Amino acid sequence: MNLGVNIDHVAVLREARRVNDPDILQAMFVACESGADQITIHLREDRRHIQDIDVKNIMINSKLPVNLECAIDKNILDIVCDMKPHRATLVPEKREEVTTEGGLDVFNHSSKICYAVEKLHDSLIPVSLFVDPTMEAMQKSKELGAEMVELHTGAFANIFAMLYANLSHSNHSIKELELPRYKLETMLENELKNIKEASVYAKKLGLEVAAGHGLNYANVHYMMDIEEITELNIGQSIIARSVFSGLSEAIKEMKKLTTR
Question: pLDDT for 30-73, tens place per residue?
Fold first, then answer.
């Protein structure tokens, strides 16, 4: 299982004060030396964390492959094609969202996605689509020409957090998931079944399979049981853990959990 370490949240902290501390490049170097297999960053249209200069510096200095997440916006795609990351992952993006809220709508935006995939391929950049774990999304991703899918695990992670973590007792409790435990347990089983079935089908279609969003130290072991998934992209939980243990130790601990 390859571990992509998303370092966006280091830049979130930096941008909160608009200084160069913490240094995103230092975070990248620590990740490279601590067992990460890939550096993952998201260049958002509103530039709320990663900046253009960050992408350039990371591309120049990273000894690991760089997975650059981006929207299907033409201006962003131009930058990605110029930067030439090892892979581009197309993700949905809304200005008002705190974090990515779901998978890419590969049906209603198929023409734009097809254009984006072709444009990236013209620059010899492999493409992954960040999609919900459904059979239909796997089939459509293959038709659109992607080499890889990254399964959105946010629904699974939210249910898990409401069931086994303290989210329900916090200010960020998810109202629609304030349900009896037996219902949450059934929902969790169904989400895991969806992820497993989508992974198997994607593999049969010849797609590489990654997963990410909301994965953390408590729930990541569920992904380890799905052999078709060969890569996890994890960020917020690693950076949150690093506040207490340091970034290197946080990455090493996650790498242990994601080693088969």
Answer: 999 999 999 999 999 999 999 999 999 999 999 999 999 999 99
Q: Of 49, 69, 93, 208, which one is the catalytic site residue?
A: 69
In this structure, what token pair is assigned to residue 3? Answer: 């571990």
Cα torsion for 88, 93, 97, 102, to the nearest 10°? -80
What are the pLDDT digits (tens) for 111-140? Answer: 999 999 999 999 999 999 999 999 999 999
Question: Which of 152, 213, 228, 231 is labelled catalytic?
Answer: 213
Q: How many degrees, rounded to 5, is the angle at CA 116 between CA 111 and CA 117?
A: 100
Query: Could you tell me the two tokens for 76?
Result: 């962003």
**Cα–Cα distance measured from residue 224 to residue 65, given in angstroms and rounded to the nearest whole number:** 22
42 is catalytic: yes
Active site residue 213: yes
Task: Give yes or no: 69 in active site.
Answer: yes
Residues 42, 150, 208, 231: which is the catalytic one? 42
